[in-house]
Amino acid sequence: MRETVDYLTQVVERREPHHIITANPIMVMAAVNDEKMMRVMKQADLIVPDGAGIIWAANYVNEPLPERVTGFDLLHELMRVGEQRRWRVFLLGTTQEIITEAANNLKLQYPLVDIVGVQNGFFGPTEDDEVVARIVEAAPDMLFVARSATTQEPWIAQFRDRLNVPIMMGVGGSFDIISGKMKRAPVIFQKLRLEWFYRLAKEPARYKRMLALPKFVVKVVREKENVTKP
Q1: Going residue by residue through the chain (230 aa), what tens digit of pLDDT does each one get?
Q2: Cα angle 218-219-221, degrees, rounded to a multiple of 5
Q3: What is the DSSP letter of 44?
């Protein structure tokens, strides 16, 4: 986490556009099965290990990673740096109610960060240009995006060059937690790397997505020698 935050702090200072992906096994399997998602991940400027399964796989193939760098925690670490450096932030995604409440809570927690824009995620391709123009005009240092799993990263990748924001990062359900609509998994679940199980228990409808987890494990075990190869 420290290495990631230090690196991204330099990115903001240099004003270098970066698309950061917080990867988990579900996302990896989506890329394995979808050429478009594979291209998006290959074109990303930085991929960090969000899911516990990524840490397990890295250890299993003898390419260990020091720790998880979850999107939720990374968002807060970057906001802390932004508090010190007076960064500008744009929030995009989820419903208007949730994104507004999340923005209000972040303002209370990080009052010196300038939240320069808030946009819900319910817009289609015909409105993309308008949304991109709003972000460009706001000129944020960080853009946090929370849209559907199939839309979030491809949208950032598609408009990356036009947005020209130093940090562009998908944050999944982080705004739900920040707004207070949902609770994060208790610390014991986090330590046991069972956040996925907690979320599944809270949202049983997620089970279809979770079916990718055993497939990921099987693929890593069966193709151990090839996991780290292009």
Answers
A1: 999 999 999 999 999 999 999 999 999 999 999 999 999 999 999 999 998 999 999 999 999 999 999 999 999 999 999 999 999 999 999 999 999 999 999 999 999 999 999 999 999 999 999 999 999 999 999 999 999 888 999 999 999 999 999 999 999 899 999 998 877 667 776 666 667 666 666 666 655 667 888 999 999 999 999 988 87
A2: 65
A3: -
* Contact (CB, 8 A) for 51 and 78: no
β-sheet bridge partners, residue 48: 22
Task: Decide if 144 contacts 71 (C-beta within 8 A).
Answer: no
Of the candidates 132, 133, 130, which has an alpha carbon nearest to the alpha carbon of residue 155?
Answer: 132
The distance of Cα 208 from the centroid of its chain, to the nearest Å, equals: 20
CB count within 10 Å of CB 129 equals 11
DSSP 167-198: EEEE-TTHHHHHHTSSPPPPHHHHHTT-HHHH
Taking the C-alpha atoms of residue 28 and residue 128, their distance in angstroms, rounded to an integer, is 26
Q: Is residue 88 a contact partner of residue 141, using CB atoms and an 8 Å limit?
A: yes
